[in-house]
Specification:
FAD binding; chromophore; 7 strands; DNA Cyclobutane Dipyrimidine Photolyase, subunit A, domain 3; binds flavin-adenine dinucleotide; 23 helices; two-stranded antiparallel sheet; DNA binding; DNA_photolyase_N; FAD; Serine Threonine Protein Phosphatase 5, Tetratricopeptide repeat; alpha/beta
């Protein structure tokens, strides 16, 4: 009887795991579990394409390491010492065929099939193709008997693609979320989660195999390749060594990776604290563990599945009828957004990453048509946004939280994304890559899909959506509790009414980098002689012109900022972009530090 090799990917769990269960059923429980830290995604040299940011910084790498440790423990304890074979800084398409060949020739263990869950986006699918090609090549050279590749859908979505009604199927889906949602809510069912394989029927390999030791911390997989390590010594605010959500006491939630922690979090948010019953009212919060579910990091790594969550929501409604309200539906609604982005990625493929986005596809020929928006590529402004030094406190607080912990609330994400794309008019893909580097819950479909929305190049029927970050701060952090937590320069601030002038009263806090005029971005340099203006609330996302208020005060701009502006480089048109950017960042920092000393 042959063995089934289960290749774990973003599905680090044993429950509701179609690949694991199918492998057990088809191989009478003879299972070899494998996990590879793919060096293109999580490794000492993995970098994003445009911005050259670390592809996986410390918080997520740490969360991932914990999830792998947890999976290894679960397999060992539930399945009589079963060993999870782990490989670091490696490529699945090299490691897996080599392992299968060695097992066959040296241990007389024949692997009949490799089981895994199919992914959606091109980088992940390319790995699947490379693995298939490598196994075929070995087979053709006679070095390996035939091995079947069993790609399964798994439970990464709430609705299974096969269960979508015809009008909402992947090939046919309407491009607007609301239309799609109405169709699926009416015509699709949600499958029950699968059980974990019965321990009595699982057989671990009766020998120990050589592989890498399971990493104990992020540094063992990414080394110093993280944005925190690069920025720690040059941001003028505290960024702890090996920043993670647990190390930094200002965290919103002390995230720990893994299926066990996911179950604890789901239990705590539902039956534990009943916070779920208040979700609709609290979901736009910025501070604390309970304003939203915080399930996204676990979903991203597959520590829990949307179908398991749905089952818990239904059970909660049944067992706590007195708490039943709109909130459980609202969480389901958000999970449907997640599905929508995933099915959109299946449908439109790489358009998810195009500068002109899915709008280009909808408008016809993707190469020719599409909005002709020109994005700025100002390295200095980008750097100020990344390091939480824009002079707009809501943006800065959120960006610092992200850098220090890997977490940012949904409200925060919408604001910082709108600010980057609509106020600074910087290429949205750089923002998306920054999130890719840092977010604990990074998920290609949700991340790039949401960024396209924010930038107005997605499937959003309202492409002019804009968040007024001053007004948003007034609405969602009126007392400034959140901003004070992350901005020590403004620790004693109690009056948030003159946001554009905070630096005049708190000199350590930077002056605003722009006047925040949506659609007419102006550097302070450009506007130095213009009368001061502050934005007064036109409705967020409104089409109307913004009103300005004359204050008559002369504008004063610190010298270091002028220097920063003149030092800007076009990082994408520059062949040696990353080196120039780094040099430029250093110039900005030096100027900033000099200005602080004076
Ligand atoms: C610019 C930008 C980038 C984003 N990048 C990501 C990302 O990389 N990964 C990610 O999971 N989410 C992303 N989101 C969506 C959303 O911000 C997070 O899912 C949410 O903040 C996670 O917190 P939570 O689990 O407490 O969510 P809750 O509010 O409790 O929602 C429950 C679940 O619904 C899903 N969900 C909620 N909102 C969205 C949404 N807008 N899009 C897709 N799914 C949603 C998530 O799986 C979430 O866990 C992004 C949003 C924006 C505006």
């Amino acid at each position: 009887m042959s063995w089934g090799l289960v290749w774990f990917r973003n599905d680090l769990r044993v429950r509701d795991h179609e690949a694991l269960l199918t492998a057990c059923l088809e191989h009478a429980g003879r299972i070899i579990p494998v996990y590879v830290f793919d060096k293109r995604q999580v490794g000492p040299h993995a970098r994003t394409r445009l911005g050259q940011f670390s592809k996986c910084s410390t918080p997520r790498a740490q969360f991932l390491v914990e999830a792998v440790q947890d999976l290894a423990n679960t397999l060992r304890t539930h399945y009589r010492g079963m060993q999870l074979l782990v490989y670091k800084n490696a490529l699945p398409e090299n490691v897996i065929p080599k392992l299968i060949a060695e097992l066959s020739t040296e241990k007389q263990v024949h692997v009949g099939a490799v089981y895994y869950h199919r992914e959606v986006c091109s980088e992940e699918r390319a790995v699947e193709d490379a693995l298939r090609a490598a196994l075929c090549a070995l087979n053709q050279r006679g070095e390996l008997p035939a091995v079947t590749l069993r790609a399964l859908d798994g439970s990464s979505t709430l609705y299974h693609a096969d269960d979508l009604p015809s009008g909402a199927s992947v090939g046919n889906m309407p491009p607007v979320f609301t239309s799609w949602r109405k169709l699926v809510e009416k015509g699709a069912r949600i499958r029950a989660p699968l059980p974990m394989p019965d321990p009595a029927k699982v057989q671990p390999l009766p020998l120990s195999l050589g592989c890498d030791p399971i990493p104990t911390c992020a540094r063992e997989v990414i080394g110093d390749n993280c944005e925190q390590a690069r920025l720690r010594h040059r941001v003028p605010w505290t960024l702890p060594d090996d920043a993670t959500s647990r190390v930094d006491p200002r965290h919103a939630c002390p995230f720990r990776g893994g299926e066990s922690a996911a179950q604890e979090r789901v239990q705590a948010y539902t039956f534990g604290t009943d916070a779920i019953a208040r979700y609709k009212a609290t979901r736009n919060g910025l501070l604390g563990t309970e304003y939203s579910t915080k399930w996204s990091p676990y979903l991203a790594l597959g520590n829990v599945t949307p179908r398991q969550l749905y089952a818990v929501l239904r059970r909660y409604e049944t067992e706590r009828p007195e708490k039943k309200g709109i909130s459980t539906y609202w969480v389901l609604f958000e999970l449907e957004w997640r599905d929508f982005f995933r099915f959109t990625a299946m449908r439109y493929g790489n358009a998810l990453f195009w500068r002109r986005g899915l709008q280009a596809v909808l408008r016809g020929d993707p190469q020719v048509a599409g909005p002709s928006k020109t994005w700025r590529q100002d390295a200095v402004l980008l750097d100020r946004w990344q390091t939480g030094m824009t002079g707009f406190p809501l943006v800065d607080a959120n960006q610092r939280e992200l850098l220090a912990t890997g977490w940012m609330s949904n409200r925060g994400r919408q604001n910082v994304a709108s600010f980057l794309t609509k106020d600074l008019e910087i290429d949205w893909r750089l923002g998306a890559e920054w999130f890719e580097s840092l977010l604990l819950d990074y998920d290609a479909c949700s991340n790039y899909g949401n960024w396209q929305y924010a930038a107005g190049v997605g499937l959003d029927p309202r492409a002019d959506r804009h968040f007024d970050v001053i007004r948003q701060a007034r609405m969602y952090d009126p007392e400034g509790h959140y901003m004070r937590r992350w901005l020590p320069e403004l620790e004693s601030c109690t009056d948030w009414s003159q946001v554009l002038h905070l630096h005049e009263h708190y000199p350590e806090y930077p002056a605003p980098v722009v006047r925040h005029l949506h659609g007419g971005r102006k550097n302070l340099d450009d506007a130095a002689n213009a009368p001061k203006c502050s934005v007064r609330g036109t409705k967020s996302g409104s089409r109307g012109r913004r009103q300005t208020k004359q204050t008559g005060k002369p504008h004063r701009e610190p010298g270091w900022m002028r220097q920063a502006h003149t030092g800007a480089v076009d990082i994408l048109d520059n062949r040696d972009g990353s080196a120039a950017l780094e040099q430029n960042r250093q110039t900005v920092l030096d100027a900033y530090l000099r200005s602080q000393k004076r």
